[in-house]
Q: What sequence folds into this?
């Protein structure tokens, strides 16, 4: 393993961790996602799968495994309850969509 492979692996690990954290902070059910969250989720999925495929076709097997494991670790880290609440309070983009109950009465204020 030469220095270029190590550099590629480190960069891919950081990108994979970021993608995994992104997926871990999004709501699990698509019903709870906003339109913007849904679009960004699809974009991040295409980037993640594209990177894995590009690394596989470039015969960088170690780097392709690194990005897969880094994405999984990112999701696991983001799902830790304390960190999940903390990151949701700092980044309102990741908060679930608010549903309006048909049972609540809306009143207009004068």
A:
């Amino acid at each position: 393993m030469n220095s270029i492979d190590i550099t590629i692996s480190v960069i891919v690990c950081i990108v994979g961790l970021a993608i995994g954290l992104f997926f871990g902070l999004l709501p699990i059910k698509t019903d709870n996602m906003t339109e913007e969250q849904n679009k960004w989720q699809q974009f991040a999925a295409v980037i993640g799968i594209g990177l894995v495929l590009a690394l596989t076709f470039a015969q960088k097997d170690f780097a392709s495994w690194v990005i897969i494991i880094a994405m999984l670790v990112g999701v696991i880290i983001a799902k830790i309850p304390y960190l999940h609440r903390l990151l949701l309070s700092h980044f309102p983009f990741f908060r679930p969509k608010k549903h309006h109950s048909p049972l609540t009465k809306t009143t207009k204020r004068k």
